[in-house]
Amino acid sequence: MARGDQARRVGSGNSTPAELEDLRAKKSAQQFQSMLEDRKKILAHADKLAHSTTKALRHLQKKLGKLQKDVAPVHDQTRTLHLAHTNMGMAITSVQECVEKLRVIQPLHEKIVSGDISNDVEGFMAALHELNNTITFAREHSGLRDLPEVMSALMMARNQAISKLESEYSRMLAAQRPSPTDEDADQPPSKSLQRLINLRDAMVESEASNCVDVFVGVRSTALAAQMRALEEGTLRGVKSTPDLDTHKYTKGKHPFLTVPRAVLNMLRGETRLAQQALPEGDDAEAAAKLCGGPASQLVSLCTTVLRLDAPGQSPGRVLALLDVLGAMRDVQNDLVQVLMGCDKEVWERIDGLVTRLEVKAAEA
Length: 364
Prior knowledge:
By secondary structure, the chain is an all-alpha fold. The protein contains 12 helices and no strands. Mean pLDDT is 77; it is low at 1-12 and 84-95.
């Protein structure tokens, strides 16, 4: 009956403070117990989820290992295929470039076999320039550098071109008829001379044979032919001219009188041609190599026709000697001037000849 009375007192709001505190404590304990149960349920669910996730991850890991095992070779093969494709593309491009480079041989070959290249030196040099570029390209490109046949063909084409250039330069040089004077110095070069100048420039640009050597070789042959003709003509004239050794000799009629001036004009012409046909600065060297021979031939011819080594002096020989002395004196200074670039003994022979003629004349 006492507990019922107590409950009625609490329900009726007549509870004591101690009873109220006890009720609140019980209520808090009930709430905490309820929250704890909820947390246990959440933790249990979380554990279950973690277990499921771990299981799923392990399954995926197994799948991934199998996938990597299956896919990796395919990936490697794909990468190899891509690299091969890239290399093939580069190779095709390289081959095409090589083919284009090698095609330059054809136009150059056509110009070589066509004959006269002096009419189109610029075109010839353009083709030769392309060939030089191709040779450089081939030397830097292992695919061509390692093919002896290709390099041999390229160098053969270049050698043929250089040989043709030198041959044409020589031909044009041999055809020149140089003037001993510079009266036309203010006039533009003739077509023939201009072609020769163009060929000279091409020779220098292509690093062909030394122009001086080619010039001296060709013009020495031309000079030798002229001197031979002059000497033969003079000797025939001496043989066919009567009374050269008698008192009947006519002053100014000796066949040798025109020879000194003719030789001077020859050497002047060659010197002038050297200035036109050779690179600047090379003409003096060429003239020095070229002019010594004809000068020595002049001295020898004079000694022969006047028989300066023969004893005795007839009246006719004395008159002829004086005539020849006058002719030599007329050209002496000019000849020595032309020969100044030669060895000293060359132009000293000219002075020596004049001195000898003077001595012979004084003895007569």
